[in-house]
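Worked example 2:
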Amino acid sequence: MTTTSASQDIAEAESPAFLHAVAELAQRRPVVASRAVYNLQGNKLLDGGASLDAGVYAKLLSQPLAMRLDECVTTEAAIDSAGLRKAAVAAMRSLPFFAAMAPDDASRDALLDAVAAIPLPAPVAFQLTLARETSFEQFDHGVLMALLCAHLVRDAGASAAEMAAAAAAGLLHDLGMLHIDPRLLQAGHRLSGDERRPLYAHPVTSAMLVDRFEVYPQQVTRAIIEHHEQLDGSGYPQGLAGTAISPLGRVLSLAEVVTAMFDGKRQYPEQRVSLMLRISPRRFDAAGVAAVQRLLATLPAPVDEPGPGVAESVQRLQLLAGLLAEWHDALDQTTPDLDEASRDVLRSVAEQAESLQSMLFDAGITAEQLGMLTSDAESDPALRVELWALAQELQWNLLASAHQLRRRWEGFDAAQPIPEALTAWGDTVWALDPLV
């Protein structure tokens, strides 16, 4: 990927979602053209110094631009190093897991210095400001990623410069999400096949946005592309496995799933992280997992408060275990009728199902053992949280397997359509009540 070609590709593909977000920002604070804006035919759409308004937005939306819009506009109170440091301090104060990364002033200053050292070319600062003002959860997620990535590489002995590079990759890994229709990201929205494509492509979009600027090392761009890859090959966009994923990419992959537990108002994030790492050991870098587990070990036990009931969690686990068994049945019925290429697609998903089945057995999740839990278990807060977290993690894994199956089937020139039994199984998984 070259900087020039990346910039041109994005300029020609300026998304309505991004333009809409810019228009939304312009309603809150002045957004001004820092230079004249032209379309691909060389016609001027906006003079330098002019403010964006609803009429200009419609004009920009109607035709491809000669340059990326973020290279042509500016706004007041844009994100800078001081603002990043302030956001990182706020995150560490509000979330014990992130505070645990800095048990003393020296470690705290090292992390905050890494975040503050992230280069911020004006277009990147504009994109971050846009996220902060129109999609704060995305901005907050980036700050958490910056902190955790810097901590993980520091734990492995990285230099200050390497920590800053890791923080930059963490902060900027999801810039491409600003270019996705926000309706597709709403909780509970069921994505169709066509709607999934921009979501699966967002790591590449993010990397292209960052690759325009030489201040970011190539390892940062590569890691951003890889931040949804997993060591067992179950990730995207390329389905990389093992050492095919770069060292910094493996850091981002782990940090992505850990910080996701702290996004929004998820319940019991620390317990969910702990469980996820215990039942998915082959997906993430072992050294990074150990570093996260050391952080978790420093945190206090969960407070005994009203929460998920044992009976409800047991019922959900029984339902999910039944769906896992149905997957095996559907696979057994389907496989003999498939060609070898199609079987290869199924093998990777089948391996995920085997891992889930082993996870259930290791956790003691069988129909008989679940049935032995009594009302006395309600008085054990640790057990209540563990069962609830286990149900959440199992459902998440089933959803991931269903998405992986469809994504990989659609990703190669299949001679046969996806079997009806597997399609029906995926539809049942997607119809489950949303995760909380």
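The chain is about 60% helix and 5% strand. The mean pLDDT is 83.
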